[in-house]
């Protein structure tokens, strides 16, 4: 039962519960009209302490398309946070006004803290460099709808594996399915954190290799997940400038890949995928953004208990 629950970490839902969310998303995609009023009278609060375009607007579009309404802030400076209010107090107040809350915060663990004090479901929309479980729902729904299921794939993940929270959440989520292999492509400085390697990959006996060259992953990959270098998490501008253009996926590289490989990206893109790749039918990152809205519709409908 997902009614009243929070989504803070990708492992919060069982595989069966995830499947229920995906089935509802499929049903919404097939027949959006049938769901256009299920959340009538419900309110989503978006509490965004860190910049966002896609995630916030996708949550808001999702709620509006369910027939509900939205309120919130997209800049911590315009809220009482600038007066020194704690996350705990903000969420206790928001709980009085809304039925579900989506929170993005630069500090790891913030959504978890909010969920302790909240009386409404809290959805983690990104906590620092930690986790981003609704991007993972987006990624999983996209994989499910193109590849059929989550098993037997070679998944290449390229870019900033150290700070990229979408990467951490995706690896965690996919570690629960059988027979996948990861090709982790990053500069030495931006390798995936040790805790993911030890507690997720090694613990579950999942095959993985760490590579520095994207070319070395292109032929084997069934799924290529590109990410940008996370500028805002760097302490030193020079390091960012040195690393930011290390990987650029272009047409020549796409020529090395399987015909049915898919390219995903959580977006925003900076330089890591050249525009010429957008016309390749394997590049499905904008379709992925659309699936993100549908899966958030399904998620919120479940947490609010307005859909079976
Ligand atoms: C991601 C994020 O915020 O972590 N964006 C998103 O939600 N689609 C990825 C990123 O910012 O690079």
Automatic annotation (TrEMBL):
The keyword Ubl conjugation does not apply. Keywords: Pyrimidine biosynthesis, Transferase. It catalyses: carbamoyl phosphate + L-aspartate = N-carbamoyl-L-aspartate + phosphate + H(+). One of its GO terms (molecular function) is aspartate carbamoyltransferase activity. GO terms for biological process: 'de novo' pyrimidine nucleobase biosynthetic process; 'de novo' UMP biosynthetic process; amino acid metabolic process. InterPro entries: Asp/Orn_carbamoyltranf_P-bd (IPR006132), Asp/Orn_carbamoylTrfase (IPR006130), Asp/Orn_carbamoylTrfase_sf (IPR036901), Asp_carbamoyltransf (IPR002082), Asp_carbamoyltransf_Asp/Orn-bd (IPR006131). Its EC number is 2.1.3.2. Pathway: Pyrimidine metabolism; UMP biosynthesis via de novo pathway; (S)-dihydroorotate from bicarbonate: step 2/3. Residues 155-301 form the Aspartate/ornithine carbamoyltransferase Asp/Orn-binding domain. Residues 5-144 form the Aspartate/ornithine carbamoyltransferase carbamoyl-P binding domain. The keyword Oxidoreductase does not apply. L-aspartate binds at residues 83, 165, 228. Heterododecamer (2C3:3R2) of six catalytic PyrB chains organized as two trimers (C3), and six regulatory PyrI chains organized as three dimers (R2). NCBIfam families: asp_carb_tr, PRK00856.1. This is Aspartate carbamoyltransferase. The gene is pyrB.
